[in-house]
Design a protein that fits this description.
Oligomer: single chain
CATH superfamily of the largest domain: Alkaline Phosphatase, subunit A
Largest sheet: 11 strands, mixed
Number of domains: 2
Strand content: 15-25%
Number of strands: 19
CATH class of the largest domain: Alpha Beta
Number of helices: 9
Order of helices and strands: HEHEHHEEEEEEEEHEHEEEEHHEEEEH
């Protein structure tokens, strides 16, 4: 059930409809012969198109993900909404392009909750359809009512419970940012009253060591750029933190923790329809997989982290099989953005890369306007309805998954909600091979691109051509329009804008009208 932070006089019509829906959400309980599918959305972090063996990965094997693909659909032209985490997650859960909303860039660990309680979310869709809902793992969408004002020693004032999630066990932000604790149903999990928590993104606390000043304390990982502030578990982070005690996580146990909680939730709710947002951390820095996964790839810690991710997927599948739930459970697996190799820690990811290409055939990486920033793996399995062994080249965007899943459960979206999301359920289930006419992509510099089945247009931007603060990544910025023929030049090497001005104008027009909310696919 949602709780709200606003006075009754501030209610908008949309909010009022949402509140009324919340009051009646659990009245629509399943019957004994209920056939609605369970839905599990597995959302990997920084997992590239080329990082799975079913997508041609070299140096790492992912048998559980491969099995998921063989028993369902493997998509080859699916896009996250943005080339960075927070905006992709915002867009996925709200059906709204993050670039429409200020404050949706990569969030600090003490950011206030970015999705507001009166916004209708993907979790609301399922909750109001009678599902039990849960979020596990990486959150990175802010907590509490205002940035920097959270009291981490008390119940938080705004959490995923206000966004349609009945249960949550989440990281406040991401592994390289403090606070390094799990939040369970609005409170710090395993809270240690002997070590009260303080967090700041402005200045350190007196006497607290940092990676910059105390490198001798970095017994697990050292930073390659940035990430040299507070030290937790022998790894320095972004931001400053004091306290935590027994509540502090150990990076090598993160995957076990979130997977165990997800499995326990499935077992507890086996007799009712459930929706799970399972957001893994593994491939994101700092990469520090459990010792049992060390040496399981040829690529060191980054490759071993992918193996660990595959294990988590396997545990979810194994549980569904054991409980007899696999046949009527829709599993969707994808990633929040493209991959990055060196993103701030000395983990030999670049040195041990070998022939492995994290972005597959695409140019660019995480942060970039090139395809490698948003082209992601996507796999769907639902044995009761989806034919196994399929491959789909349909152009698809995660922005449409909210409206599509609403259609799946016959849910009506309140007016004004999910404004950029459209029902493409046929694409998602392999029943409609037609492409989305166009996809909008966002780089970390807020540069927007338009992809059609054939063309890729990147709007002009005067920013630097390479990221200036650390990773060796092309931004995709150029002061002139860029146009690439994705059928003939998937690596985006030849700019054809001067040769095809009519196509440039057409795609510029699409972008202009989408910005103005004057065009739908």
């Amino acid at each position: 059930m949602k709780t709200y932070l606003f006075t009754i006089t501030a209610l908008s019509p949309l909010f009022a409809a949402t509140a009324a829906g919340a009051e009646s959400s659990h009245k629509n309980q399943p019957t004994a012969d209920d056939k609605r599918p369970n839905v599990i959305l597995i959302y990997a972090d920084d997992l590239g198109y080329g990082d799975l063996s079913c997508y041609g990965a070299q140096g790492v094997r992912t048998p559980n993900v491969d099995r998921l693909a063989s028993e369902g659909i493997r998509f080859t032209d699916t896009h996250a909404v943005a080339a960075t985490s927070t905006p992709s997650r915002y867009s996925l859960l709200t059906g709204e392009y993050a670039w429409r909303r200020p404050g949706t860039d990569v969030a600090a660990g003490n950011a206030g909750m970015i999705i507001t309680p009166y916004q209708y979310t993907l979790a609301d869709v399922f909750q109001h359809a009678g599902y039990t809902t849960a979020a596990f793992g990486k959150w990175h969408l802010g907590l509490g009512e205002q940035s920097g004002t959270q009291d981490w020693n008390a119940p938080l004032s705004a959490t995923p419970a206000d966004l349609g999630f009945d249960h949550h066990y989440i990281m406040a932000a991401t592994a390289d940012r403090v606070p390094c604790v799990f939040i369970e149903d609005g409170r710090v999990a395993n809270y240690d009253p002997s070590a009260p928590i303080e967090v700041s993104y402005r200045q350190n606390f007196p006497g607290e060591p940092t990676g910059r000043d105390n490198p001798e304390l970095l017994y697990n990982l050292r930073p390659s750029h940035g990430h040299d502030q507070s030290i937790v578990n022998g790894i320095s982070r972004i931001g400053y933190m004091k306290g935590g005690g027994q509540a502090l996580w150990k990076d090598e146990n993160i995957a076990d923790s979130i997977t165990t909680h997800a499995v326990d939730f499935i077992r507890a709710h086996r007799d009712e329809p459930f929706f799970i947002y399972f957001a893994t951390n593994d491939v994101h820095v700092p990469r520090f997989p459990h010792p049992r996964f060390r040496g399981q790839s040829a690529m060191g810690l980054r490759g071993d982290a992918i193996v660990q991710f595959d294990w988590s997927v396997g545990q979810i599948m194994k549980t569904l099989d054991e409980l007899g739930l696999a046949d009527n459970t829709l599993v969707i697996l994808s990633s929040d953005n493209g991959p990055v190799v060196d993103d701030g820690y000395e983990d030999q990811a670049e040195e041990l890369l070998g022939q492995h290409r994290p972005t597959g055939p695409f140019r660019g990486n995480k942060y970039s306007a090139y395809e490698g920033g948003t082209a992601v793996p996507a796999i769907v399995r639902w044995p009761a309805r989806v034919r196994p062994g399929q491959e789909s080249g349909a152009l698809m965007s995660q922005i449409d998954w909210m409206a599509s899943l609403a259609a799946l459960v016959d849910a009506r979206l309140p007016k004004g909600s999910a404004p950029d999301s459209h029902n493409r359920l046929g694409n998602l289930l392999g029943e409609d091979p037609t492409d989305r006419p166009w996809v909008i992509e966002q780089s970390s510099d807020h540069v927007l691109s338009v992809r059609t089945p054939r063309w890729k247009y990147i709007e002009p931007n005067d920013g630097p051509k390479m990221i200036t603060w650390g990773p060796k990544i092309e931004t995709g910025n150029d002061p002139v329009p860029q146009l690439y023929d994705m059928e003939a030049d998937v690596a985006e090497q030849e700019n054809l804008a001067a040769k095809h001005p009519d196509t440039v104008f057409e795609l510029e027009t699409i972008l202009r009208k989408v910005r103005a909310r004057q065009l739908n696919p």
